[in-house]
Design a protein that fits this description.
The protein is an alpha+beta fold. It has a domain of about 150 residues. It has eight helices and twelve strands. The structure holds iron/sulfur cluster (2 copies). One iron/sulfur cluster binds next to helix 5.
Length: about 230
């Protein structure tokens, strides 16, 4: 795996070979990445199969955490791409879940990179997959051609996402994080609401709420499954 020439087209093609479904490129001013960053790749993977949003419960250092399956895939694919770019003599670091909050707002970055628009469900709605995508990012010192926000608005303002949210966390007044049950570190009250609303296939596994994703009529709804993305 390699590229003949360092440019945005070749690097996007490489990201596609590794398994990303969409790639956009923005400048370093949109993120708080390493100081040598000249370009930020915003990388998306379609998660049409809800299995991607299963989470496993783990406990270490006395702390309890849920970890989403798809974030592990995104981290692994991002690391593969960073490794491939380093093989080309570039500096490259991919995002990990742990440092994502301090480095970059992935929703803002995805819109800046032209991958989608911010929908009424408060997440990024893409033309091809609707909101059923997850994002990661990669920082590189390669100077690459930038992408730009989309001109078309793909959310059709149908408000189905508002109606299907089981807790009223999204609506005309925007997003109320305190009501969203897709929360990794819930308060005791929120944990009780999660127990009532979420599906727990095993004691250590849960299927995260994705009603605001599944209700959206924009884009494809089926077609990418586990064995299509895991070699
Ligand atoms: S994840 Fe669930 S609770 Fe949170 S905004 Fe979406 S539909 Fe509502
Ligand atoms: S469900 Fe309708 S209103 Fe909500 S994000 Fe999708 S298109 Fe927009």
């Amino acid at each position: 795996m390699g590229i003949a020439e360092v440019n945005s087209t070749a690097i996007k093609a490489l990201a596609g070979e590794i398994g990303f479904d969409q790639v956009g490129i923005i400048g370093p001013e949109h993120a708080n990445g390493p100081p040598w960053t000249r370009s930020v790749l915003v990388l998306a993977m379609a998660t049409l199969d809800p299995a991607f949003d299963h989470e496993m419960y783990i406990e270490y250092d006395g702390r309890r955490r849920w970890h989403k399956f798809v974030y592990t895939i995104l981290e692994a694919q991002g690391a593969r791409l960073a490794h491939a770019l380093r093989e080309e003599g570039l500096r490259a670091e991919s995002l990990t879940f742990e440092d994502s909050f301090g480095c970059i707002d992935l929703r803002v970055a995805a819109v800046q990179a032209g991958l989608g628009v911010r929908g009424l469900n408060e997440v990024v709605v893409t033309p091809k997959y609707g909101p059923r995508v997850r994002f990661t990012a990669l920082f590189t010192d390669a100077e690459l051609a930038r992408d730009h926000p989309l001109q078309d608005y793909y959310c059709v303002n149908c408000t189905r996402c508002w109606g299907d949210c089981p807790t009223g966390a999204i609506g005309p007044r925007g997003f109320d994080r305190s009501r969203c049950i897709a929360e990794f570190a819930p308060t005791p009250e929120m944990a009780e609401r999660q127990r009532e609303v979420l599906t727990f296939p095993t004691p250590a596994t849960r299927l995260q709420c994705r009603a605001c994703l599944d209700s959206c009529p924009v884009g494809e709804r089926q077609g990418v499954f586990y064995f299509d993305v895991i070699p």
